[in-house]
Design goal:
The protein is α/β, with parallel strands linked by helices and 591 residues long. It contains 9 helices and 31 strands. Strand 17 and strand 18 form a beta hairpin.
Length: 591
């Protein structure tokens, strides 16, 4: 249900596709409101000012500031807005126009009132003082709209609510208070280097996914975007729920993604390109795919203000927040492989990392999760992560690990250290080594036994928040050149089997890593004492579990991590507490 409302001098004109009453009031200035007026759906307010251009000497991105305050009972949000050219730039590729917009995702039903602050002044966009500069154009505009309950079904975030950090090992859906486990793709990192976005090098076409586009799915400019939308459809159809991508890789590996009017102009933003990104991101919301927004990489972490939180960097974050923070599954990543190392000796320091995290958290009205991507070697992880333990503006860590043998221990380590520091980190495994191979195509590794054991289940059984798969650089459809996600079809299925097991059979948010409970040095144990014990066996070896601390009787069920399916009986159906009990053998001796 989509509604378009035009407010003009207290006269309300309503055109709608289907019947729905709205209480709308306006006190001066033209305000156009578009969207689905239901909880968790995007509502876009558009305002008209004087005509401006992306290239104007009086920079519309830097010297104007739009903030809109939304109120509903005891809730209040101050949402940053942005210059939108003609308001239809995804279709027109316009560089000039009179339109400013703000995007809002209401989290309550009922009447939302809004009031507009629109100010002008030198560098005012990054000035936090409410009365900075002077009032301009439509400053003071106000009104209201009514939001009803959402009736969306399926994998859409709107059935469960926004993903929120709640000082837990896991993100939680706000409406259903259930934890979120991530399974998705880390590659291609230059996912947005897509040939049908305006002013974008043609690194990716995703032609193999044209068949995955469906009638009714979004496009722009007479059918552009079908391939990238189809690719996302495919990934979601495999049960995945997250995509990792860079929004800036100038000087980096791909050199094909930036949000500006050109790669050297860092205070002027490409309205049409960013609106086209928004079409793709909105479809990701509909599919239940989290936006893992990686804001820079190691090669360019000094590109903006020499790494400091200066004018360019503040404006960059403000524009990303204004245009994309309303999405219901957002992770802000401060930077891939952040911090100086031997192959990238010039990098940001601890204070600069903290400044970035604080600025994003304080300016994102929805307080979406903030993480830091690490280097691959544990020694460098220690150097850059230890000073951030307990820091109130960092919510998690995006791990890169060179040797998969270390993943389970590393995930355990940072979960424990963050818990002891008083701020639990959401710990994800987002890049695996060796760098050349990563997660190989099914054609090269059809069983994926090693990475299923040492990466996927290693993270989850340590209490980690999930995995995104990195594709290396040596094989077909690699990290920078992947055109077909079907190249890892079996891997997606095995990832889905793991997510299904945790979501369907375990109270995993109440469980802790407890590997020492068994006499098997290769297995993983996740336990809720006296209640449930999950044991992952990479091989069907004889295994005993220490149940001396309980007098309960436990049933034993087996699950096949490579094939999924129902829980099955093994050679032993029940065991009693109070002993070091043999758990028996699985129904088949395969992994």
């Amino acid at each position: 249900m989509r509604i378009k409302i035009l407010q003009l001098n207290k006269v309300v004109l309503i055109g709608m596709i289907c019947m729905m009453s709205q209480s709308v009031f306006s006190q001066k200035f033209a305000t156009e409101i578009n969207g689905v007026f239901k909880k968790w759906h995007k509502v876009t307010l558009s305002f008209e000012g004087k005509e401006l251009n992306e290239n104007d000497e009086d920079n519309p991105f830097l010297n104007y500031r739009l903030n809109v305050t939304f109120k509903n009972k005891n809730k209040e949000y101050i949402i940053p807005g942005f210059y939108a050219a003609d308001g239809n730039a995804s279709e027109s590729s316009a560089k000039r126009g009179k339109v400013w917009q703000v995007r809002f995702s209401p989290d309550e039903v009922g009447t939302w009132k809004y009031k507009v602050s629109f100010r002008k002044g030198k560098n005012i966009a990054i000035n936090s003082k409410p009365d900075a500069g002077v009032a301009a154009d439509f400053d003071g505009a106000s009104g209201s709209f009514t939001v009803k309950k959402s009736d969306t079904r399926g994998s859409d975030f709107r059935t469960k609510g926004r993903l929120k950090y709640v000082n837990s090992r896991y993100l939680y859906y706000t409406d259903v208070n259930k934890p979120f486990l991530k399974g998705g793709t880390d590659s291609p990192e230059n996912f947005l280097g897509y040939y049908e976005f305006d002013q974008t090098p043609a690194s990716h076409k995703y032609e193999q996914h044209a068949k995955d586009w469906r009638i009714g799915d979004p496009t722009w400019q007479n059918g552009k975007g079908k391939n990238i939308i189809g690719a996302l459809n495919y990934l979601a159809s495999k049960g995945m729920n997250s995509v990792y991508f860079l929004t800036l890789n100038v000087l980096g590996d791909g050199k094909d993604v930036w949000p500006w009017i050109n790669e050297n102009e860092m205070t002027r933003y490409d309205c049409s390109k960013l609106d086209q990104w928004e079409i793709v991101f909105e479809h990701m919301d509909n599919l239940g795919l989290m936006l893992h927004i990686v804001t820079q990489e190691t090669e360019n972490e000094l590109l903006l203000d020499i790494g400091q939180l200066g004018t360019k960097r503040k404006l960059y974050y403000r524009e990303l927040i204004a245009r994309f923070s309303h999405h219901l599954g957002v992770t802000w990543n401060l930077g891939e492989e952040n911090g100086p190392v031997h192959f990238s000796p010039n990098g940001q320091n601890d204070n600069e990392r903290k400044d970035m995290a604080k600025y994003i958290k304080e300016n994102d009205p929805y307080k979406n999760m903030i993480v830091l991507h690490t280097h691959a070697v544990p020694k460098k992880q220690d150097k850059f992560l230890n000073p951030l333990l307990g820091y109130q503006y960092l919510d998690g860590v995006s791990l890169q690990t060179q040797n998969p043998d270390f993943i389970h221990a590393i995930v355990n380590k940072w979960i424990s250290k963050s818990q002891n520091a008083g701020r639990n980190w959401v710990v994800s495994q987002d890049e695996i080594g060796p760098a050349g191979s990563g997660a190989k195509p099914d054609s090269e590794d059809p069983k994926h036994d090693m990475i299923r054991h040492k990466v996927l289940w290693a993270n989850l059984m340590a209490g980690g928040a999930g995995v995104e798969w990195y594709f290396g650089y040596k094989f077909e459809h690699n990290d920078l050149k992947c055109e077909d996600w079907r190249s890892r079809d079996i891997l997606w299925e095995q990832t889905k089997h793991a997510l299904d097991f945790f979501n369907d059979h375990l109270p995993f948010e109440e469980m802790q890593s407890a590997d020492g409970l068994t006499d098997n040095n290769e297995d993983y144990v996740l336990a809720k004492n006296d209640a449930i014990y999950a044991v992952y066996l990479p091989k069907a070896n004889k295994t005993n579990i220490n149940l001396f601390g309980t007098t309960n009787t436990f049933s034993i069920k087996w699950y096949n991590p490579s094939q999924g399916g129902k829980l099955q009986n093994g050679s032993i159906k029940t065991i009693k507490g109070g002993s070091n009990a043999y758990i028996g053998m699985p129904p088949s001796h395969g992994t």
